[in-house]
Amino acid sequence: MTTVKPSGRPPWAEKPSPFTTAAKGVALTIVLVLMLTPFLVVVSTSLAGSGEVAANGGWVLWPEHPTTGAYRTILHGGVVTRAMVVSIALTVFGSLASLACTTFLAFALSRPRLVGGKPLLMLILFTFLFPPGIIPAFLMVKQTGLFNSYLALALPVLVNVFNLVVMRGFFQGIPEELFEAARLDGAGYWGQLRHVVLPLSKAVLAVVGLFYAVSYWNSWFTAMVYLDDSGKWPLTQVLRYYVIQGVSMADPTQSEAGLTQAPQTVQMAVVVMATVPILLVYPFLQRFFVKGVLTGAIKS
Q: pLDDT, tens digit, for every residue of 39-50?
């Protein structure tokens, strides 16, 4: 039973004391500094000169003489530029295809009168609990002729089961009266999806779409396994090569400009280029996160 104070409000509704407010501010400031310092070091190191990086032991918190030499170095040979285009195209088209397939399948599974809906849902959940593994997936891609093609980065992961369950739960939360009204107006399943479900599902569509976009943008492992041609690598795979090797890939950059930059500056510049694009998208979709995920998780 909740204890009510003489003021008539429960304890959790009382105005916090100045000490509590100050403690929360200090804790939030500490967390903010801990979160932003690594990113500041990455950006500062990418903008520092080779001598300054060497003098500070490989890392720079704030560059005294900022320079964009590292960015000019990695963009000089065209490897990073081509990889950026590949990553953007893969993220855009892959996310759209995955979002469309997930939406259609989630809508079908959310309808109570779907014949075979329960067995199909159990089969899909079985793949979530017992994934096939790397070797069977590689053999499937190899035997279907998708090896060393961009389709290998999208088709095997076209539908994510977690995203499917979240979207299905969201669709099930839509009042059945709206579907009945649409059917009375002569709308079929496609009309119900287009005129009833999609207009009410902007939040979950934005959240699931961002989940897919982040997944495709960070898909370095699938590129490493399925792409044998380094000219087809996305940006994250190129980033992995830069970080592990400590030098740029074999192109004119290495011979003409790569030697003038410290390896740390080149590595951090690629990290910034691989991180900033997805960070720019997140603020526009942040307001959909709580509504989209929590509403979809209420009923499954």
A: 888 888 888 877
Q: What gap in Å lies between CA 112 and CA 118, rounded to an integer? A: 9
**Sequence-distant (≥ 6) Cβ neighbours of residue 204 within 8 angstroms:** 166, 167, 170, 288, 292, 293, 295, 296
- What the block records as the tokens of 25 is 């501010």
Residues in the chain: 300
Calpha distance 140→243 (Å, rounded): 30
Are the CB atoms for 60 and 70 separated by under 8 Å?
no
Instruction: Give the mean model confidence (pLDDT) for residues 241-268.
Output: 60
Phi, psi values for residue 261, rounded to 5°:
-120, 140
Letter for the amino acid at 76? H
Provide the Cα torsion 270, 275, 281, 287; round to 10°. Answer: -170
Q: Could you give the count of Cα atoms lying within 13 Å of 146 in the half-sphere of its Cβ?
A: 17
Rounded Cα gap, residues 41 and 61, in angstroms: 5
Structure tokens at 175: 């009042």
The span from the CA of 257 to the CA of 225, in Å, is: 30
Q: Could you tell me the two tokens for 109? A: 């599974």
Q: Which residue has the tokens 């990086």?
A: 53
Residue-wise pLDDT for 67-92, tens only, equals 887 888 777 767 888 888 899 999 99
CB 202 within 8 A of CB 288: yes
Amino acid at the residue 289: F
Alpha carbon separation from 268 to 70, 86, 110, 240 (Å, rounded): 9, 20, 45, 11
Distances in Å between the Cα of 28 and the Cα atoms of 25, 32, 35, 245 are: 5, 6, 10, 37
| Tokens describing residue 190 | 């496609």
Q: What is the amino acid identity at position 106?
A: A
| Whole-number Cα distances in Å, 50 to 70, 89, 208, 259, 264 | 9, 34, 42, 10, 9
Cβ(90)–Cβ(222) under 8 Å? no
Which of 206, 215, 223, 221 minimizes the C-alpha distance to 282?
A: 206
